[in-house]
Every structure is written in C-alpha cells, then in structure tokens.
Amino acid sequence: MSVLSKAGYYLRSIQYYTLLLSVGFLATFIALVATACGRRFDTDYYVARTFYYIAGPLMGWSFDVEGEEHLTHLEKEGKSAVLLGNHQNVVDILYLGRIFPKHAAIMAKKELKWVPGLGWFMSLSGSVFIDRGNNKSAIQSMKLAGDEMKRKKKGAFYLAIQSGTPIVPVVCENYSRLLKKGSYFKTGTLKIKVLPPIETKGLKVPDDVPALIEKVRGQMSATLKEISQPAPKTSKKETPKRSSSPTPLLKESKHKSYQSTDKTDVAVDAVPKDAEEKDSKLAVALIEKRMISDFFHPNVGGVEGHIYSLSVELLRRGRKRVGVRYLAPGLKVYHVPFVTLASSASLPNYLMFLPWFRTIILREKINLVHGHGSLSSLAHEAIHHGGLLGVRSVFSDHSLFSFDDSVGILTNKLLASALRNVYACICVSHTGRENTSLRGEVEPERISVIPNALVASQFQPTAPYIPSAGDNSITIVVISRLVYRKGIDLLVSAAPRICAAYPNVRFLIGGDGPKMLDLLQMRENNQLQDRVELLGSVRPRDVNDTLRRGQIYLNTSLTEAFGISIIEAACSGLFVVSTRVGGVPEILPGDMVEFARADEDDIIRALTRAIETIQSGSHDPALAHQRMEDMYSWASVAERTEQVYRRVMAQPVWTPYERLSRLFSLGPVFGPILCAITAVQWWWYLLVCAVVPESEIEVVEDDWDAGRFAQQRPADAPSKSHSQDAAEPATAAYPV
Q1: Is position 244 within any domain?
Q2: pTM passes above 0.85
Q3: Distance (Å, rounded) from C-alpha 299 to C-alpha 665?
C-alpha cells in the first residue's frame, strides 16, 4: 500500500473523529430541546440522522437499504422490537444513523457515559448503560481474532425474551473494500439489509437463549456473506480459500486426516510451478535445517513437543536437524547461554545471538532456519540474522494473541518485524492463520496450515462405560494449567451445579497454577471433597492413565490455537466438551465433541448433553481411538512441512535492498528504526567475520546411518504428552 494511501487514511480518520466529536457536542443541545418538547425518547433518532446527514456527504459514504419496510411496519403498528446490528468498528455510528428508528433507546457499555459530548447526550436521551465488566464468568475482556462476525452478547436476547418483543437483525456490508485500518479510507456506497423480525414469544430464559443466539447469528452471517463484496486485491496471487467442510482441517469425505495443506488450502502459488518442479530435486538434496526457539526440553509443553516430534520425523525422512547434548534419535540441541525470563523466554536482543548463530550455521552447513513461537526472541533474531548469511527462513506460530492489550501490541510489533523477511509461515489452524496474518502483517498466501499431531499408541482408550448396581459414576477429567486464559473461572462456576444436578458425576482435575486456590475454595464451600479430586501437577507419562479414569474431557479455554490436549483426550476414548474458541472447532468431527460458548450456562448445557451421551452408550472409546489414529500422524505433518521447505528453497534469496524495502514498509516510524537496526547488524556481522574467519570454524561431518534410522517405527519415540506443562527431563530414556 502506497504512502499516499496511508496518509489519506490517517487524514480521513482525523476528519471522521472530528465530525463525531462535533456532533456529539451538538447532540447535547438537541437532547435538551427534545426533552423540553416532550420528545426525549426520540433524541437518539434526531442525533443519529444529524450525524448521518452531516458526516455522510463529507466522508463520501452512502448506504443502500434493503428491507427497511420491516422497521416502518413496526413503527406504524406501535410495536416494540430489539434491533441487533453487526459491529465492525467505530464507523458503525454512520450506518446506524441511516436506519435508526424513532422512539428507540441505545444499550451501550458504561464507559461511553463519560465521553465528552457523546456521553452527555446519551445520558439525557435515556440510553441504557451496561457494566460489561461485571460478568459472573469474567469473559468479556478476552477478545479473539479471526471471526467474520463476533459472537453476540447475551443481554439483548435476555431483554427480547423477557419482554416478549421480536428481534430485528440489521446487517451492514463488510467495510473491507472501503476501509482497512492503517491502509486506506475510501469513498463509496455500502449495502444494509434489514431482516424480518424473529419472534421470541413462548421462549424462556435461560434455556432458549443459546438456540436463539445461534439462529440470529446464522441469519446475520449468511446475509453478511451475501451482501459483502470482496476487498480490493493487494497482490496478484489469489488468497487460498478455506475449506467448506464444517471441520475444515479434516477431510470432507471421510474425516480421517487433515486437508489443510492440500492444493486448495496451502499457498501453492507462492512459487511458480515450473520453478518449483525445476528445483524440487535440488531442494530435497540440499535442505539442512535448524529449528530455533526459546522453548524446548527439558521443559515440556505444546511447542516443545511439536519441535521434538517434527524433528524426529524429518530425520526419519532424511533431513538433518541440529540442536549441546543429543536427544535420541540423533537430534542435536545447541543451548545458548542466555539469561531467561519467565517460561524460558529470553529478552529480545538483535545483536548478541549473532556470533553463536553464525557459528552453528557454518558448522552444521545449514541453509534453512525454522523459528517457532511468537514469544521466542531467538526465533525472531534467527530470521533477522538469516538474511545476513543468505539463509532462508520459515516461521511456525502456535498461539493466538489479541490486538488491544499491552502484551499483544508489543508482541505484534516484534512479530511483524520478523515476519517481514520470512519466506513462509506455518500455523496449526485456520483461525491461527488469520490471526497471524493480521498480527504479523503477512500476506495470507505465504501462510500454510499444518496441524499438530500425536503418537496414538501412547494414548490407549479407556474401557466402555457400563453402569452397574455398585458403580454408575461418570468422571469428568480436566488436565490444564490452572490460569485465567484456560477458563478455570468457568470450571469453578460449573462444577458445583453439575454435581448438584447429577449425584453420580465427579470431577478429576489435574494441573497447577494460580487458580488452584479458587478450586480449593469452591470444593470447600460446596462440600465436594468426595466429588472433586485435585491431582496437582501431572507428569507427562501419567497423562494417559489419568485420562483413562474418566469418560468425559472438559476444556474451558478462552483462547486456543489448536488444543492438542483435546485430541489426546479423544484418542484416549473420552467424549470431549469444549468451548468453541480459536481453532478448536477445526480439530474433531462433530460426533466426538460437544461445543459450548464461553459462559457458565452453556457449559452446563454441553456437559448435560455429554453425560446423556455417555449414559446412552452411544460413544465407543475404541472407535474414537481408531479414528484419531487415522486422523493425526507426525509422519503426515513432516511430509507437509517438507513441501513448504521445498517451495521456500525454490525461491531466490532476497537481496539486502529487498529486505530493507520490506522492513521500511512497516510504517513511517517503525520501518526506519528496523532499517537502522539491520544496518547495525550488518556492521556487527562484518566484525564477527573479521574476528572469527569462516576458515577457523570446523565443519561437522555426519557419521550416523540415516537409512537405518528411517526404518524405525514412530512408536519407538519417548512417551510425552503436552496436556500439562510440567517440568520433566525429556532425555531420561536416552542417557547422554
């Protein structure tokens, strides 16, 4: 996007906010006059229309409205209704000004009450201010990226059902072709469609609220896709399309394996086909790769396990992996002597890693580096330094991050600086792909989706549930870090209600963290010492035995890019109940999981459905294990990752000018700063080369039999699980 386009965006944004503030002060006068004339509840109508007729022409935005008769019909008959619109950003006020009816009140978050001008008139007009932070589930602050339309808040639906009034959905076309944050702010016409009223008579609170929410959201989502036009293309390459499967990471035909890196979903156009075919054999022969991350064994976790398992399978396929001690089978690990912060993460540093990086690259004859983790400073620096040595780079992102908190803002800036010069990205889910594309400002066609996996033989299925006169208990298992983002508040709220409703249900909770105190208090306050068992930290080798003690696995995470603990539980034969967040809906077929929204009431509903499923005997643990064994394989993950490597190796190495140009495009302030850092890195690299010439670095020669190792079975790998981030040495089975 050109500098002029960006400048136009910021100028027009200033113009819009100036108009909004000006009309906000004018609205106070309108509210006073309307109140004096006895038309207080028409104040919002007058103010909305005033803003539309002033700001619309000045901003060059207009709207074509379809279905407006649904609003006028209600107004003529004097009927009440709840209007529900799709929220996109602050420009929504403009389209609301076009369709806002008379005698209506606004429900808004209480923070708007204190905005000068706007808050004054809203107070005078009878607006209803909602304290969204006072939610018993404490969910509102967790905002996720990736949805085309955000999940609806429940307040409007409770209001509609309790008052017996219909809901009128109002859908505005996606702004993307006219407005993109930080890029452009164009003029044009957008479509608005008012849908027919949805009756709520006869519905009850809270039982019918989830179904009503899904019905309204389904209609609005379908309408949004119908009326929205695609955003202008910024690249000649076509963005890969998402699979139409309801579980898009699974094959649409048999639901037995991932479809995320087939010709439809992977960025196959990232390299011209003829160039790829021409260089494919050369690429296969030359790829000597290095995994880089702050997170690796002896710590145990999802990223650590992913790096280890992927490296083992790539070794099996004939790729070299380097890493100060050896992990079987032949995986070498270099530990850099840096001081770490929390969770083994190191401080960002653009210079100090370079001498070690250069030595390892030259010693091991590496020509491709693969970084893992958005919070890994080593991965970011390796991508930066790789360009100095002519080494191509790939990056894998394993997590979701928000856009509006301090951690997200700082992390996203660092991520964008690294991914600007990465040749390809890999994400573990489609939701993660969208999140990384937005956070890292990466072209979607350069991001492939390749899932996590597991060794199915390490997760044997539990016995089928057979109730008896002596024992008909059902155990719900939870294995998780006990932290806020894992939704432990939901577990604390739901467990006592489930125990009260089902005397034969008990909870088995493994894990440790700051929320352990909340669980202890919940168990004590409700006298559930014999119904809720708290195990504390669970060793990785004990995870399968713990899972086999139950029939249902509960995941209450508020954000999850993939959810490897879920597939481990499913492979152990448990029926899964999970919050519908992040990439979780993509990983299991619908008959193996019951989804819930991230609130207490829907968690209760989903658990009730799961308990009924177990009691009916319709869930077969052995069949679930077999299906997971067919779906997930590290060999398949390694094969697909290798395809990404081939495409990367077929691309030409970027010149210093190309790298600096890409960094400079990150913004008028951040871009030049990164270019200056790159220049300093270059001088530092020349100094390192002068002090330690390449001729003094001894090259490592391989003497192990890769062919013999390739014949070993994946089941020979050490048993690990990623459900619990417990610290246990990963090399115990393989003495150095």
Answers
A1: no
A2: no
A3: 37
